[in-house]
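Design job #97: recover the sequence.
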């Protein structure tokens, strides 16, 4: 299993870094890697959200016992189940390889930041869809812009903070 993990992380890193020369004048390598991996995970998230909302849930609400969840919130939860572990893997093994905390600590910190992202997603989706009456998928896309900014700075400065060289 360790061999497979090393192969996968090395493969992803080689593919991502192959395109870096086109962007090296615009941003540092770590920022580029975050943008590339985050872009992939965001695309996956929005794609899964769209499929879940429009085809799996058929734009309807979901009932869990006495709790009723709107379709766009249920679709967000469904996509989250896939993108949470994918995002952690990419962040840990591709973007933020130099770090001062253990994997277990990182996972806990990552979850805290992701919990903040969940709250932001929920709040913005509620505002955009339920208050403003906007379509769910474009609302999810706009929400993602705010969440990505929060996530990058939180992951860089909290979850995967690099060791300081003194």
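Job complete. Output follows.
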């Amino acid at each position: 299993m360790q061999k497979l993990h090393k192969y996968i992380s090395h493969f992803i890193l080689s593919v991502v870094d192959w395109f870096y020369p086109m962007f090296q004048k615009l941003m540092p390598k770590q920022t580029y890697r975050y943008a590339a991996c985050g872009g992939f995970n965001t695309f996956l998230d929005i794609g899964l959200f769209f499929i879940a909302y429009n085809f799996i849930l058929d734009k309807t609400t979901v009932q869990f016992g006495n709790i009723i969840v709107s379709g766009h919130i249920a679709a967000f939860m469904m996509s989250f189940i896939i993108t949470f572990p994918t995002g952690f893997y990419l962040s840990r093994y591709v973007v933020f390889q130099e770090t001062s905390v253990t994997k277990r600590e990182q996972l806990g910190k990552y979850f805290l930041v992701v919990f903040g992202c969940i709250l932001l997603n929920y709040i913005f989706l509620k505002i955009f869809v339920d208050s403003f009456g906007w379509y769910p998928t474009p609302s999810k896309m706009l929400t993602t812009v705010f969440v990505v900014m929060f996530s990058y700075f939180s992951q860089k400065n909290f979850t995967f903070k690099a060791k300081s060289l003194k």
